[in-house]
């Protein structure tokens, strides 16, 4: 399965479906250690992205670039999500779009895409691993992707999604030192970070889109 613009469009659709299905769970996680809006924020954002993409057909007569789809995701998330996660995911997808200005992604460009997304989140939020944020899902995802090797870009994505999943679960015992959850101090321990969980869902959707 080529990781081309068709895949990127399916990634958006799969992400929107996964976020809609998990909306209440994400909201509940954010209710525990935040303000209870993460599910609603992302659901609103990804519905808008789907609508925007449907209204933006692939260009006539030339192959659509993966980065063009991801750029549309970025600008739409930035203008519709709000909160902390809107600018963070917006910057992630914007940087990823620049790393993906090609018709299809090979192994090294999937790694570059994920690295760019993480760098964008770190530049925007100044969080480092272990602060109980979405970085704790993205960082192991990038590490696993870079370590995968081989020549199957979908295998790289799968390794990233698995690592993000484990990274998100591993936020449970952490004490938050960035974002709204940090206001709770020690009481933030014992709950999974909502942004780390949504990251794991988005990366899993990237794999499902490739398997479709
Ligand atoms: P808000 O906190 O403004 O209500 P959301 O609920 O949509 O925004 O998103 C909260 C998530 O954003 C957190 O679970 C965390 O993963 C992420 N987050 C918050 N601040 C930062 C930061 N400085 N760096 C990285 N991620 C962050
Ligand atoms: Mg919130
Ligand atoms: Mg909020």
Automatic annotation (TrEMBL):
This is Dihydroxyacetone kinase DhaL subunit. It comes from Xylanimonas ulmi. Keywords: Kinase, Transferase. Residues 6-208 form the DhaL domain. InterPro entries: DhaK_L_YcgS (IPR012737), DhaL_dom (IPR004007), DhaL_dom_sf (IPR036117), Dihydroxyacetone_Kinase (IPR050861). One of its GO terms (molecular function) is glycerone kinase activity. Pfam families: Dak2. GO terms for biological process: glycerol catabolic process. SUPFAM superfamilies: DhaL-like. One of its GO terms (cellular component) is cytosol. SMART domains: Dak2. The keyword Ribosomal protein does not apply.
């Amino acid at each position: 399965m080529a990781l081309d613009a068709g895949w990127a469009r399916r990634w958006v659709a799969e992400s929107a479906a996964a976020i809609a299905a998990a909306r209440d769970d994400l909201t509940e996680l954010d209710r525990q250690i935040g303000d209870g809006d993460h599910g609603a924020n992302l659901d609103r954002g990804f519905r808008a992205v789907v609508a925007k993409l449907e209204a933006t057909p692939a260009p006539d007569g030339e192959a659509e670039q993966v980065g063009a789809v991801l750029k549309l995701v970025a600008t739409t998330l930035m203008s519709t999500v709000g909160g902390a996660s809107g600018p963070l995911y917006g910057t992630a997808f914007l940087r990823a779009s620049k790393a993906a200005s090609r018709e299809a992604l090979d192994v090294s460009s999937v790694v570059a895409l994920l690295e760019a997304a993480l760098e964008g989140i770190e530049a925007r939020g100044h969080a480092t691993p272990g602060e109980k944020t979405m970085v704790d899902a993205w960082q192991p995802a990038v590490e696993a992707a870079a370590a995968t090797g081989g020549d199957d870009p979908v295998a790289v994505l799968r390794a990233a999604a698995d690592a993000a999943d484990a990274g998100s679960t591993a936020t449970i015992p952490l004490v938050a030192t960035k974002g709204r959850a940090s206001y709770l101090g020690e009481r933030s321990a014992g709950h999974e970070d909502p942004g780390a969980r949504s990251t794991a869902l988005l990366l899993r959707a990237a794999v499902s889109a490739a398997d479709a």
